[in-house]
Write a structure and sequence with these properties.
144 residues, Serine Threonine Protein Phosphatase 5, Tetratricopeptide repeat, ANTH_dom, mainly alpha, globular
Length: 144
């Protein structure tokens, strides 16, 4: 698969995953992005796609973004947490935006989920040896 097709597929997966409809995140879209992060050895394509979407438009989109990012941190390439550090202000801003809007039941949920993601990323910054999955091998435990 050439680079252009890959990027187009990743953009499509982000757009299909982050919809305003109150339906669960489809595993195939999340899986496509997770596999893409491993193929690229980076989350740059994901972040480029997300930055083009105005997540403040809909609280469900923000919730799905948080859920998708959580999955990427856990199952994506090992660089995902590190590359996501620079987006901590954006994640915090999203949480604060929805916290102050009482237009839906998602406000407090989005604020709490975004805070959890920020805490998770700060944890990975403090302990870079910890993989996103939080699973260590015996040798990693002995060397720590």
């Amino acid at each position: 698969m050439d680079r252009e097709t890959f990027v187009k597929g990743q953009l499509e997966a982000v757009q299909k995953a982050l919809t305003k409809y109150e339906v669960p995140l489809k595993p195939k879209h999340a899986r496509r992005l997770i596999v893409g992060s491993h193929q690229e050895r980076s989350s740059a394509v994901f972040w480029n796609a997300v930055n083009k979407i105005q997540l403040e438009k809909n609280p469900v989109m923000t919730w799905k973004f948080c859920h998708l990012l959580h999955k990427l941190i856990r199952d994506g390439h090992r660089k995902v947490p590190e590359e996501s550090f620079r987006f901590i202000p954006r994640i915090k801003q999203l949480g604060q935006f929805w916290k102050h809007l009482n237009t839906s039941g998602y406000g407090i949920c989005n604020e709490t989920y975004s805070r959890l993601l920020v805490d998770r990323l700060e944890f990975h910054r403090k302990y870079p040896v910890m993989p996103g999955s939080l699973m260590l091998t015996e040798s990693q435990i002995k060397n720590a």
